[in-house]
Write a structure and sequence with these properties.
110 residues; mainly alpha; elongated
């Protein structure tokens, strides 16, 4: 059993989206930038894509889980911390050590 109703859950989405407008446009632009970097492949593309993903993870942890979802579920603070941890791991592996690669592949993944 969830500690909140579906109405309260949907109300969190509505209040979050209303509060952050027009940040959604920037999020779409960053997503398009990441895909363009994946296709275009300039030097440093993998690091830039990691930076975009890590920034979005931090935003989701802080803005959504920490500020909005936590109003109906205190476990959201744990979710926020896990998003921060994931962003830190991405940053460490992808930016600091440059060990994250994004590529298109054909055929079966092995």
């Amino acid at each position: 059993m969830l500690p909140f109703t579906s109405e309260r859950f949907l109300a969190v989405f509505a209040s979050y989206n209303a509060a952050i407008w027009p940040v959604q446009i920037a999020a779409y632009l960053f997503g398009v930038l990441a895909v363009a970097l994946l296709i275009w492949r300039p030097p440093g593309a993998d690091r830039a894509i990691v930076a975009v993903i890590a920034a979005m993870w931090v935003w989701t942890g802080a803005a959504y889980h920490g500020s909005f979802f936590s109003t109906i579920n205190t476990a959201a603070y744990l979710f926020a911390a896990l998003f921060f941890l994931q962003a830190a791991v991405l940053t460490y592996a992808g930016l600091y050590h440059n060990r994250v690669r994004f590529r298109f592949r054909t055929g079966w993944v092995q």
